[in-house]
Automatic annotation (TrEMBL), chain A:
Name the record gives this protein: ABC transporter ATP-binding protein
Keywords noted in UniProt: ATP-binding, Nucleotide-binding
The family this protein is said to belong to: Belongs to the ABC transporter superfamily. Ycf16 family.
Gene Ontology MF terms in the entry: ATP binding; ATP hydrolysis activity
Xref: SMART domains: AAA
InterPro entries hit by this protein: AAA+_ATPase (IPR003593), ABC_transporter-like_ATP-bd (IPR003439), FeS-cluster_ATPase_SufC (IPR010230), P-loop_NTPase (IPR027417)
UniProtKB/TrEMBL annotation, chain B:
Gene Ontology BP, a term: iron-sulfur cluster assembly
Organism of this sequence: Streptomyces lavendofoliae
Record-stated family: Belongs to the iron-sulfur cluster assembly SufBD family.
Residue intervals of the SUF system FeS cluster assembly SufBD core domain: 137-364
Pfam family membership, one: SUFBD_core
Residues annotated as transmembrane: none
Protein name as annotated: Fe-S cluster assembly protein SufD
Amino acid sequence: MATLEIRDLHVSVEADNATKEILKGVDLTVKQGETHAIMGPNGSGKSTLAYSLAGHPKYTITGGTVTLDGEDVLEMSVDERARAGLFLAMQYPVEIPGVSVSNFLRTSATAVRGEAPKLRTWVKEVKEAMQRLNMDPAFAERNVNEGFSGGEKKRHEILQLELLRPKIAILDETDSGLDVDALRIVSEGVNRVRESGDVGTLLITHYTRILRYIKPDHVHVFAGGRIVESGGPELADKLEAEGYESYTKGGASA
Amino acid sequence: MAEAQNLPAGSTTAGSIAVAAESTVATRMSAPPSFDVADFPVPHGREEEWRFTPLERLRGLHDGTAIATGDGVRVDVEAPEGVTVETVGRDDERLGRAGTPVDRVAAQAYSSFEKASVVTVPKETALTEPIRISVHGQGGTAFGHQVVELGAFAEAVVVIDHTGDAVLAANVDYVLGDGAKLTVVSIQDWDEKAVHVAQHNALIGRDASFKSVVVTFGGDVVRLHPRVTYAATGGEAELFGLYFTDKGQHQEHRLLVDHNTPHCKSNVAYKGALQGDQAHAVWIGDVLIQAAAEGTDTYEMNRNLVLTDGARVDSVPNLEIETGEIAGAGHASATGRFDDEQLFYLMARGIPEIEARRLVVRGFFAELVQQIGLPDVEERLITKIEAELEASL
């Protein structure tokens, strides 16, 4: 069973000619089939965790380890991590002018699966996945993320999740900027992938709203660059009622 | 992609417009157009029209020291039936009708060529096969003059292919009769030492349409000057360009669309990718809408994709409007780096770096390549772009 293990992870960024430590010792284990919600206030380092795991060059790992089934993730390049089974659904997916969605999806699936998917089954696979996400077939001919609305961008991220079938999916604020309908559609997509039991999900969010659609097994509160409290789904209810105030004021993050 | 919009580039103006008192397109040249090289002073490099060009690499084309040699270029014309191909002397009256040399090298070419090639498509003849003109450099220096003339309602595609090594200065005239349709693809696929400076003049007849596709890959210095004027109303010009500027290369495209006649259209789109130290691309896009040219509709665009450090782009769109009674006018220029965020996004989907770069560059050019409309030329361009990328990655 695939397992992502994060141990005492420290991460810094360079900003204004100074090094700033953002993650200050993160410990977390995500197993295939589990869903972990990471919740925290803005600036707590949630997105840094997501991007560090995917290997974004902006972040420097200064300590700790990350392994996927015992393999050292931190030694892998960005594309190697993806091929090893890590997937990051981004909060702000970038535009790639001139590259069509269909070309991009096929290139990506070929890379991740290690061989080009058979054309006939592939076309059907993409078409059905798009239908499930209420995406217009014309979408496939548009350029990646170019002129997409916020909701379209997130659906496109989840479309990739469905097609690439990673071992570990990190969803970085996938719920932000979505209206209720879009949130439901996107959540259903995530749930379809989860129901396969093959994926471990790390759901990063600021709000509890998405947890009504995607039920986590574990909830972690992230503050000051580390996990400050872990619990079951009931922890989300507590956050809903009380907010993050008790974690951001003094004590917890110190 | 991080884009620096060059405002008012990108804006479309219609209606109320500040009227330029005097055309700087015309006045900023250091001498008025002339067929005689003696009318132009030898440039020193600070003139507006020469300031981007490395004069020391022009092998004397600009200062009179370049002398034609016997082994300059070999020109072969392959034309379908119905087309007349002639080699004519300097006194042939069909030469120089589409435009007058605007700088010293073009005037030098006009003053120095011995024989010109004239290709004529008779009126109402629609060709189904392209006319292919091969200009193959044989290591020497040459001055050339080429005329392509289409009679009224004639239709033709001309592919001019420049290969080999040469120092070449030339003028090319395209004369389109009323209602004629001409597509010209000029490919600069020179060996690495070649120097090529040319002025392309198109004179567009009433309701005629002209499509120019300029593709520059090779050479040490390539400086082309595609220019369009309209002989009567209703003319249309589409000027497309694509360049891939490598380490040490200087590739300069200077365009002028002179809207001197009412109700004509023009659309300019040039795209370039650059890679390697001292790669230098220059794009000058001048569009002039004269007071008489009411109902003009024009747009020009230049985009550059800088793939590595050490490359340089100078992109200067310039739109001058002397009448407010136009249908539309706009221009845009953007130069972007291959973006680390794009690379990250693609790699985060498992795509290796080399393939990710290839995908982006291919995508960058794809839309433009598709507008060429000639499958064999398109395929060759794609192959060439891939090879250029392959060499660098």
